[in-house]
Each structure stands twice: as structure tokens, then as C-alpha cells.
Write a structure and sequence with these properties.
heterodimer; A: Rossmann fold; 5-stranded antiparallel beta sheet; B: alpha+beta; 22 strands; 60% helix; binds adenosine-5'-diphosphate; binds magnesium ion
């Protein structure tokens, strides 16, 4: 059964003349344990899709179903609780709280959920260590490199043991080496820890790590492909398809 | 929640200057509230200790309703009562010291207390420093307080000479009491018969003091005793000096008000700061929401931050307040010791004061933080994911502006009605209205003042004006803080000016005779020994004297309220002096006084009793109940504050048996040799030790000087109001500079000099100052008018005088604050490192 399903998901910004249709009746389904990437050029509506799926924004039309439950009908507090417990976000700009340490940032969803600080910090430290940040627990974000900050953000996304990870251009702000490392991490999250991942990106090298790829243009899903091969050739193939679009 | 506290703490630490400035706002309010109110109980206690030390264990005190003397055997009526353990009669009168003694010792009068020696010693405790207390067989013996002994340089065995009915009487000091005297009163204890002889009223007393048996209800006994004594007696509360306590209480209220005002300004500052904080932290807040923080959690974070500052500021404020109380105490100590002979040891911290200051401090902070915190609810998670849009323009809320404008119009209508309650309400509406209207007015006013400013700051002025218009709400809140401060300053100035000018006009109208022969204490009551008709006769015969008129005194009661009755000569008094009339025709009124039982009542009387011209009141007089018709409402200078009625000398003699002159006003001829007249009068006065001769002009100057001193106290209070306003401005400017760090970096990068940046901030500060001053002057004039009207309503009639100087002071203070507030922020802005500023987020 699909963990996430969208039904005619539509988002229109503004009204009248100035109206922008960012999403146009999008129907997608992400299976449990699947690593799905959505690719498309800048401005095609990828972020909008992710925000709606994550309950950060409300659709103009259509529904988002998480485990068969309609997110669009939930109250704000329930959505917040859902984001704390069942969904982990990874953003392009890390978005860490500047005054908190790596450990505290990673523990934030647990702390907000009322978990005892000691327990929250223990679990956050565990994830940070798994992600290779064990020796940077007490650094503040401005004392970390971009790649390191993104690892902290990933630890934060995973700390509450959510089913679903949503990642929006997680490598968009990184150099290619750090980007590759983060992409490989995402792959590990899927295969080693069995999380469901919905990734949106315009970078074919990152998308190449996914199980399945949807292509998006002007707010619509226009194509789909399942990946079997590995590494460079796949990325190359994807790049060509993107250009064709 | 702990994580919120952690974050709050870290955020606060991250912006040290801002945190310090904001916290200081709370510190100030709490310090004023706490410190001032720690001082007053201290003074009250010092006062009580002084009074209680001499009050001993006396439970009940009875006097005649007219406060006059009565036969000594009335004590028996009380003594006979079952529940009374002990009762004694005494005769208490103020006696003026001969002028040469008075001027040497700095004491004008003593309170002569004639007591029954053995009984008195059983009712009260008289701790002796030297010598002994009075004995039954004593003749002209006296026991005096150590304070008086020091002043008059008297020791046991020395002689004390007092004026008396028979000329003067010599007393031998037999004992010196080791008690602090009652403030302003020096007691001289002598045997009762001696006192009666000295005052010329044999067999009379004027106070009965009693102690009740243990375990009985004092109020019951009091009723029984009053029943036994009859109609003409009243019970005094055993505590004296109520008037002083009452004015200290008033002070308490006033200081509490100051503290609350200062705190309100503090709340404004917090409000401004946190509004910026929310804007500045939109990104972080959105992030928190994205990772699952509920709206409540976000509000909680902001409130935690303001709460932390509230706690910090309140704690520091309590400490600062205690220090303030100490400093003030040390300042007033010498005054207290010198004039009141009270010893205040240390500020007293009462639990209610501590709690009030603490709670109000925290509540004010939370109140200031609440609105911004609630606005943080509206930050959506998406906010975190959007790129930062720098320097978003705020729009002034038109709707609130309209509500404010309506309030201002209503307030103006209330003022026009002339009804006091409406006017008072109006002043509040006006303040609230101005706060609401302020944001809408910021842009046009900024443009107006900007044009003026452009004369001095050609380019920077324009930038500053734009900067203000960009954040009209913040500018408005800051201007409002300044407004509240300046309004208070100006209102006080208005009131003080009016009181000052009012009193002076009272002096000019009701005491305008060239020479005054008056009791040195300046109070007509208090049992001053008056003069017989020979005095004024002699005065009238002095060459160059055109005329003389006298005031006499009696006491009466109206429905149980004791009033002072002043006797005037209806013919000569209005010619030489006169009253300041509020209702009634002066000529008619004085004519009526001479014709019938008629009286002119003063403003306090009219207000307290709701008396109008034409009413007929029943006065309890020593001769029984008498009906007097009210023919006017008016006051003179000396009696403006006391409940007073003016009647004719003839009626005072008929109904009050009073013929002694207590004050003589002398008018000299136009062409008279003033020095010669004065010399002659001086000679006459020497024979009457209770009188001093005062030349009108020097009297007026003296009064003016005394007033001037109290005015300087108001200046200090004014500064207290100006300080938090200054803080508010510094705070806003600092925020503005910080918020525009990147912009300032760009300005510097494209070639602005440090000087230009500094001038830009200064211009902005001056603009804000001008706005606040403009609002403050409007609100302050209004408030001042209301305060003066309030005094008039309570019967203390003074005309409203427009505080021209007050306005000048307000403008000066406003500009000063404008310049002063810019110093630190301007330096900060000018010193910004360009590269760092460009990277600033
Ligand atoms: N808040 C908004 N208001 C108006 N238009 C928006 C808003 N957010 C996004 N859009 C528009 O919607 C379209 C899709 O945006 P987005 O989902 O961010 O694209 P992508 O992430 O694929 O680059 C774009 O044309 C963008 O300009
Ligand atoms: Mg995007």
C-alpha cells in the first residue's frame, strides 16, 4: 500500500491575471520503503509539491493522503505533531537554528515533542554519530561546513524515527564532493534504515540514487522511469532525458 | 519547556546590547515603583514611632466638638464608667515663644500641656533623661523634651519664660524627657493649675484621656463615654498627626502612579523590541514550525524570552530600587531630622510592596511581549524556506488610526462640556487615541519635520525621514513612549505653575495689606494667644497708617465636622484685603455678614459639604445651635486648605465669645514713610510676644521662595519621567541601526563617510524626538488642565495657568533626548565594519 498518495493535487498562487498554477492536478503515489525522486527544471513546482505533501502548505484543490488519512483536513496543531513524529524534512539551506548546537538542533523535534532532554540528546547523538558527525556534537552551525550542516539537518530529520523523509534540493547548496556524500547518505537511509524518501531535485547526479524517478514540467508529471543500473551511466541517461524535456 | 528557555537564553545572549537596553527599561520602572514605596513606609514608621513614644498606652481621647475648653469636672463623667481604668484631664495649647527666643532657637511655638501629675504618669510613660517628672505639690515647674532643651540650651534648674495672660510667667525646668518630640510640636509639661492660670482659664481643660480596662471593647466604651459626656464632645482617634500620615499616603499613591507610568514606558520598549525580534527571526520561527513546533510552542518561545528579561529586569530593578530608597533617604534625612526630628534608619521592605513591584514588573514585560509573541503565531513554516526579503515596509493600520481619531474627537467633545468627570475621562481617551493615531501621523509628520531638518541635514534628513516612514508602527510606539513621559512632565509643570501662580494671586488678593501682624506659625488656629482691642487701636494711631483690620478665630461643628470660623470686620476687611470669590457677589456678601447671621464659606467647605449660596446651615457653637445663611463662596490665602467659614466679628463675639485679634492687617497711606511706620509698629509688637510684624513684600518673597523649593522637587520627578523615554529612543534607534546593518554596509560601500552615517542616525533620532514632543505637549497640556480642574472640584480653587515655561522645558527635553538617544547607536552605525555588515543577516 502507498504511504503517500496525492489526488488531483493543485496549487494556484495569486488570483486573476497574476494567478500562477504551480501544481496542476498531480497524482503520485510513494510506496512504503521506496526512494522516489521528482526531477524537473527550476520553477516547475517541485518545492510546492513537497510542501503540500509535508503539510507545510494547503492545496487549492485535491488531497494528500498519508497512510490513507487526508492531511488537508487536519488542524494546524495536528499537522505540527505529524511533522514532529512522522515526517522528516531536509532543505537546501539546512535551516538550522543558529543559537543551538549540532546536538540540540538534531534533537529539536524530540524536544518539541516533550521527550526528556537527556533521552532526546542521546538519540540525537546516536544519529549524528551514524552520519559521521560524532566529533562535532557541540559545535554551533556557524562553526560547521555546508556538508556538515546538512548532515546535522539529516540527523534532525531522522531523530524522531519518521516513516517519511522529504528532501528539497538537499545538495543544491553544496560543492560536488559534499553533494555526492549527501546523496550517498540518502541512499543509505533508504536501504540500510528502510525509510521512505521523496526527493525533489534538478540535479541528475543525486536523482540517480533513487529507485524511481518522476519527471515534472509546468506543474504536471509528464514521465516516469525506474532505475536499475548504477552510477555514472544512469546519471548520464537521466541528464539526457531532462534535456530532451 | 526547557528547550524554549534554552533558546530564549541563547538568543538574548546573542544580542547583548539590545537585551541590556530592553532589560534596563524594566529595571527602571521596577526601581521607581519599589524604591519610592519602600521609602514612604520608612517615613511613616519613623513618624509613628515618634508619636507612639509619647502616646503611651492612652486608648481614648475626648475633646469638645468646638475644640474649646470645658470645665475640668467633666473628667468625672468618664472616670465613673465601669470599663474605664483611668482617666485624666489636661489642658493643651500652643504658646508662641517671644520672638527673640524664637529666632535664636529656631522654634516658634511650644505646646503647653497642663497635666494632673500623678494620674498623668499612670496613663503615659515619661522616660526621663535628667531630673524628675512633675509632683503633686509642684508650683511653676516644667518638664520639657530633650529636643527643646537642646534648642533653648536649657538644663535642669534653668528658667523658661512663656508669654501668659498676665504678661509672662517663669517656669523652672525640673526634668528633661528622653523622647523624640512629636514632629513640629515641642511639649512643655506643667501642673494643670499652673497652665490654667497661665492661659487665663481657671478650672478649664480641653482634653480628656482615658485607658480602658483590659479585655473590654474600646468602641463600646467610647460610645458609653460619649453618651455620658453629652452632645458637645467628640472622640479623637488616638493617633495624632493624621494630616501628615494622610499626605504621606497621597505620596504613596503618587509614587505608585509614577512607577506604573515608568513601567508602561518599559512595556512600550519591550513591545518595540519584540516586534523587531519576530521580524528578524521569521526564518528561525518558520523552521521551528517546519520541524513540528506547534503555534503555541512558538508563542511560548517568544514569551519565554520576554519573561526572562522580565525576571532579570525585575530582580535588578528591586536591587536598584532598594539603592534608590537609600539614596533618597540619605537626601531627606537631614530635612527630617531638622524639621520633624524623626529618625529613619533604613528603607523598609514590605511584602505587599515587594510583591506588587515584582508582579507588575513581570506583568509589564509579558504584556509588552504578548502582542509580538502572538504575531509570531502567524509565521508559517514556509517563511523559513523563502529567501529573506530585506527591509519590508510596514503599513500603518488605517483602521486603528480611525478608531484613535474618533477617540480624540470624543475627548475634545468631553473637554468642551466642562464637566470634570467627562474631562478626566477625555484625557485618558485622548492618550489612548493618540497612541492609536500615531502610526498614521508618523509619515506626514515625519515629512513636515523632515523639511525643517533638511535645512541642517541636507541629504541625511531625507534618508532618516524615509527610514521612519518605513516602520511607522515602531516609530509611533517610540514616539508614544516619549509622549507619555513628556505628557507627565508637562502635566506636572502645568499643575505646579497653576498652584504657584494661584497661591501668589491669593496672596495678592487676600493678604495685600502693607503690614501684617501675624502669628509666627502662620496658622490661625492652634490656640495662639490673641490680642485684645488695644493692639489694633494702637496700630490705627500710628501716623501714616490709613487703616487696619483684624481676623479672629473660633471653632464650630457642622454635622459633627469641625470647622474653623474666622471673624472679619465686614466693613474694613474688604477694603484692606478681601477674599477670592468663587460664587456670590463680594459686596452683597460682606454687607450680609454685617447685617445678619450670615457666612462666607471657603472652597473646601463648599466642596466637601456640597454647600451652595443661599443654603442655611446649623452650626454647633459654644453658645448652642445657631443658623447661618451662606452668602458666598470664597477663600483667603491662609485658610485655603482648611474647612473654613467667615463671619462678622459681632457674630463671633455673640455666638463664640471670641474677641481676641489673631491677625492684624495694616494699610499705610500712599505718601507715608514706610520705614517710620514699620519702626513704630515694631515697637508696638514688642509688647505682644505672640505676634510678629511682617512687611507684605518680604512676606510675599518669602512665600515665593518656599514654593520655589518645592518646585525643584517636581523637576527631579520630571527627570524621572524623561529617563525612560530616553531609554525607549535609544532602544528603537539601536534596533533600527541593527536591522539596517546590511543597508548601512551598502551605503558605506558606495562611499558614504562615517560622518554621514552618524548624521543620518542623528537626524532620525531628532525626527522621532520631534514627533514624541509634539504628541507629548498636546497630551500634557490636557492632563495638566485636568489635574487643575480636579483640584478645583475638590474645593481647592486655583485658576489654570498655561505652562509656557513647561512647554519650553518639554521642547528642550524632547530635543535633548533626541540628540542624547542618538549617541550610542550612531557611533555603532558609523563604526560598522563594511565587509561584516554586508554579510550580516
Ligand atoms: N508564494 C508564492 N507566490 C506566488 N508564486 C509562487 C510562490 N511560490 C512559488 N511560486 C511560483 O510557483 C511556481 C513553482 O514554484 P516552486 O514550487 O518553488 O518551483 P521549483 O521548486 O520547482 O523551483 C513558480 O513559478 C513560482 O514562481
Ligand atoms: Mg524549489
Amino acid at each position: 500500500m502507498a504511504l503517500i498518495r496525492t489526488e488531483n493535487l493543485t496549487k494556484i498562487y495569486g488570483t486573476g491575471e497574476a494567478a500562477v498554477v504551480a501544481l496542476d492536478h498531480v497524482n503520485i503515489a510513494v510506496e512504503k520503503g521506496e526512494f522516489l525522486a521528482v526531477m524537473g527544471p527550476s520553477g516547475c513546482g517541485k518545492s510546492t509539491l513537497l510542501h503540500l505533501v509535508g503539510g507545510l502548505d494547503r492545496p487549492t484543490e485535491g488531497r494528500v493522503l498519508l497512510d490513507g488519512r487526508d492531511l488537508t483536513s487536519l488542524r494546524d496543531d495536528d499537522l505540527a505533531a505529524l511533522r514532529r513524529r512522522r515526517i522528516g524534512f531536509i532543505f537546501q539551506f539546512y535551516n538550522l537554528i543558529p543559537v543551538l548546537t549540532a546536538l540540540e538542533n538534531a534533537a529539536l523535534p524530540l524536544l518539541l515533542d516533550g521527550v526528556k532532554p537527556a533521552e532526546a540528546h542521546r538519540r540525537a547523538a546516536e544519529w549524528l554519530t551514524r552520519l559521521g558527525m560524532g566529533d562535532r556534537l557541540h559545535h554551533r552551525p556557524d562553526q560547521l561546513s555546508g556538508g556538515q550542516q546538512q548532515r546535522v539537518a539529516i540527523a534532525r530529520a531522522l531523530v524522531a524515527e519518521p516513516d517519511l523523509i522529504l528532501a528539497d534540493e538537499p545538495t543544491g547548496n553544496l560543492d560536488s564532493r559534499a553533494g555526492d556524500e549527501i546523496a550517498a547518505l540518502l541512499r543509505r537511509i533508504s536501504s540500510e534504515w528502510g525509510r521512505t524518501i521523496l526527493l525533489v531535485t534538478h540535479d541528475s547526479r543525486v536523482a540517480a540514487h533513487a529507485d524511481r524517478i518522476l519527471f515534472m514540467k509546468d506543474g504536471r508529471i509528464i514521465d516516469e522511469t525506474r532505475l536499475t543500473g548504477t552510477g555514472e551511466e544512469q546519471a548520464q541517461a537521466l541528464r539526457e532525458r531532462m534535456e530532451a524535456l | 519547556m526547557r528547550v524554549q528557555l534554552t533558546m530564549a537564553l541563547r538568543y538574548l545572549r546573542g544580542r547583548k546590547l539590545r537585551t541590556a537596553l530592553t532589560t534596563l527599561a524594566v529595571v527602571f520602572g521596577v526601581a521607581v515603583l519599589f524604591g519610592m514605596n519602600a521609602l514612604l513606609p520608612t517615613m511613616l514608621q519613623a513618624f509613628r514611632q515618634t508619636v507612639l513614644a509619647t502616646m503611651g498606652k492612652v486608648d481614648l481621647v475626648f475633646t469638645s466638638v468646638t475644640d474649646g475648653p470645658f470645665p475640668a469636672d467633666r473628667v468625672e463623667a468618664v472616670r465613673r464608667l465601669e470599663e474605664i481604668a483611668e482617666a485624666t484631664g489636661s489642658l493643651r495649647r500652643n504658646v508662641l515663644l517671644p520672638p527673640e527666643v524664637a529666632s535664636r532657637a529656631g522654634v516658634n511655638a511650644v505646646t503647653l500641656v497642663g497635666v494632673e501629675p500623678e494620674v498623668a504618669a499612670r496613663l503615659r510613660h515619661y522616660p526621663l533623661k535628667e531630673g524628675r517628672f512633675l509632683n503633686a505639690g509642684d508650683g511653676n515647674a516644667a518638664v520639657i523634651s530633650k529636643g527643646l532643651a537642646e534648642k533653648l540650651a536649657l538644663a535642669v534648674g534653668d528658667r523658661l519664660t512663656l508669654p501668659s495672660a498676665t504678661g509672662t510667667t517663669d517656669l523652672e525646668v525640673v526634668g528633661i524627657l528622653d523622647v523624640p518630640s512629636i514632629p513640629g510640636v515641642e511639649e512643655v509639661y506643667i501642673p494643670l493649675p499652673v497652665a490654667q492660670r497661665l492661659l487665663g482659664i481657671p478650672g478649664q481643660i480641653n482634653v480628656i484621656e482615658a485607658v480602658v480596662k483590659p479585655g473590654v471593647d474600646r468602641d463600646e466604651v467610647k460610645k458609653a463615654a460619649l453618651a455620658a459626656l453629652g452632645d458637645l464632645f467628640k472622640a479623637e482617634p488616638p493617633e495624632m498627626g493624621e494630616e501628615l500620615i494622610a499626605s504621606l499616603r497621597m505620596g504613596e499613591v503618587a509614587f505608585a502612579l509614577f512607577g506604573v507610568m515608568a513601567l508602561a514606558i518599559g512595556a512600550f520598549i519591550i513591545l518595540n523590541t519584540f516586534r523587531t525580534v519576530v521580524v528578524e527571526r521569521r526564518h528561525d520561527l518558520g523552521m521551528l514550525r517546519a520541524v513540528g513546533a506547534s503555534r503555541r510552542a512558538v508563542v511560548g518561545l517568544m514569551l519565554a524570552e520576554s519573561l526572562l528579561q522580565g525576571l532579570l529586569g525585575t530582580a535588578a530593578g528591586l536591587a536598584a530600587g532598594y539603592g534608590l530608597a537609600w539614596v533618597l533617604l540619605l537626601t531627606v534625612k537631614s530635612v527630617m531630622q531638622h524639621y520633624l526630628r524623626m529618625e529613619a534608619i533604613a528603607p523598609i521592605i514590605t511584602l505587599p510592596n515587594l510583591l506588587t513591584a515584582t508582579i507588575l514588573g513581570i506583568v509589564a514585560t509579558l504584556a509588552g511581549g504578548l502582542w509580538p509573541a502572538l504575531s509570531a503565531r502567524r509565521v508559517t513554516p514556509l517563511e523559513a524556506l523563502r529567501p529573506v526579503v530585506p527591509g519590508a515596509y510596514e503599513r500603518a493600520a488605517k483602521k486603528r488610526g480611525i478608531v484613535g481619531a474618533v477617540l480624540v474627537v470624543l475627548a475634545a467633545l468631553a473637554l468642551v462640556t466642562g464637566n470634570f468627570n467627562l474631562t478626566a475621562l477625555g484625557s485618558l481617551l485622548f492618550l489612548v487615541g493618540l497612541v492609536l493615531v500615531a502610526p498614521v501621523l508618523v509619515s506626514p509628520l515625519a515629512r513636515l519635520f523632515g523639511r525643517l531638518l533638511a535645512l541642517i541635514f541636507a541629504r541625511e534628513g531625507r534618508l532618516a525621514e524615509g527610514n521612519l516612514a518605513r516602520q511607522p508602527n515602531r516609530a509611533a510606539v517610540t514616539a508614544s513612549a516619549l509622549m507619555v513621559g513628556l505628557a507627565m512632565v508637562l502635566a506636572l509643570a502645568g499643575m505646579v505653575t497653576s498652584i504657584f501662580d494661584g497661591f501668589m494671586s491669593y496672596i495678592d488678593h487676600s493678604l495685600r495689606a502693607d503690614f501684617l501682624l501675624m502669628p509666627a506659625s502662620l496658622v490661625l488656629g492652634g490656640g495662639n494667644v490673641g490680642a485684645g482691642p488695644e493692639l489694633v487701636e494702637e496700630v490705627r494711631e500710628v501716623p501714616g497708617v490709613l487703616g487696619a483690620t483684624t481676623l479672629r478665630l473660633g471653632t464650630a461643628a457642622v454635622n459633627g465636622l469641625t470647622i474653623q470660623v474666622i471673624g472679619v470686620d465686614p466693613r474694613t476687611y474688604p477694603q484692606l484685603s478681601g477674599l477670592v470669590f468663587r460664587y456670590g457677589d463680594p459686596e452683597e456678601a460682606f454687607a450680609a455678614l454685617g447685617r445678619e447671621r450670615a457666612m462666607i464659606v471657603n472652597g473646601v467647605f463648599a466642596a466637601q459639604r456640597g454647600v451652595r449660596v443661599g443654603d442655611v446651615l446649623t452650626l454647633q457653637t459654644p453658645a448652642g445651635e445657631r443658623e447661618y445663611r451662606v452668602v458666598g463662596v470664597g477663600s483667603d490665602y491662609l485658610n485655603a486648605k482648611l474647612v473654613t467659614a467667615y463671619i462678622s466679628h459681632a457674630n463671633l463675639e455673640r455666638d463664640f465669645y471670641q474677641t481676641a485679634d489673631l491677625l492684624v492687617m495694616v494699610e499705610a497711606a500712599e505718601d507715608a514713610d514706610m520705614a517710620a511706620v514699620q519702626a513704630r509698629l515694631e515697637k508696638i509688637v514688642q509688647k505682644y510676644p505672640s505676634f510678629v510684624l511682617t512687611e507684605w513684600r518680604s512676606f510675599r518673597e518669602e512665600q515665593e521662595r518656599v514654593f520655589g523649593q518645592s518646585v525643584s522637587l517636581f523637576n527631579v520627578i520630571g527627570v524621572m519621567f524623561a529617563l525612560p523615554s530616553l531609554l525607549a529612543m535609544v532602544n528603537t534607534l539601536t534596533i533600527n541601526v541593527m536591522e539596517r546593518t546590511r543597508e548601512i554596509g551598502v551605503l558605506r560601500a558606495v562611499g558614504s563617510t562615517r560622518r554621514q552615517i552618524r548624521r543620518m542616525v542623528l537626524a532620525e533620532s531628532l525626527l522621532l524626538g520631534a514627533l514624541g514632543t509634539a504628541f507629548g505637549i498636546l497630551a500634557g497640556l490636557w492632563l495638566g488642565y485636568v489635574l487643575v480642574q480636579g483640584m478645583n472640584v475638590s474645593g481647592f480653587v486655583i485658576p489654570y495657568y498655561f505652562p509656557y515655561t513647561g512647554i519650553l522645558v518639554a521642547v528642550a527635553v524632547g530635543l535633548l533626548i533626541g540628540v542624547g538617544a542618538a549617541v550610542v547607536p550612531a557611533r555603532r552605525a558609523a563604526r560598522l565594519d563594511v565587509v561584516a555588515a554586508l554579510r550580516y543577516e
